[in-house]
Design brief:
Blueprint lengths: L4 E3 L6 E3 L4 E6 L5 E4 L7 E6 L3 H9 L2 H6 L5 H9 L4
Antiparallel strand pairs: 1-2, 3-4, 3-5
């Protein structure tokens, strides 16, 4: 894969990382946050298309939780839903 290109955990679309949402399990405190690109957050991350359809699949099949190896709160899904395209 090319440098700075990522794959959506739902639809498997490959694109530049700026085209995706980045959900991060921050190291070392294990807090789940949404990286909006304003600061660098280090830790395990999952990339997701910014669409309502990919978000629904991710929530239904717990794709974000499986990728981050953590339990995802409903609050994270609500934050993503508020900024979703569609």
């Amino acid at each position: 894969m090319l440098k700075d290109w990522r794959r959506c955990i739902c639809c498997r679309k490959v694109a530049h990382k700026n085209e995706f949402w980045r959900v991060v399990k921050a190291h070392p405190d294990n807090l789940i946050t949404i990286d909006l690109g304003k600061t660098v957050i280090q830790g395990r991350s999952a990339y997701l298309c910014p669409t309502a359809s990919c978000l629904q699949i991710a929530q239904k099949k717990n794709r974000i939780g499986k990728s981050l190896k953590a339990k995802i709160s409903e609050e994270i899904y609500q934050q993503l839903e508020s900024i979703a395209i569609d």
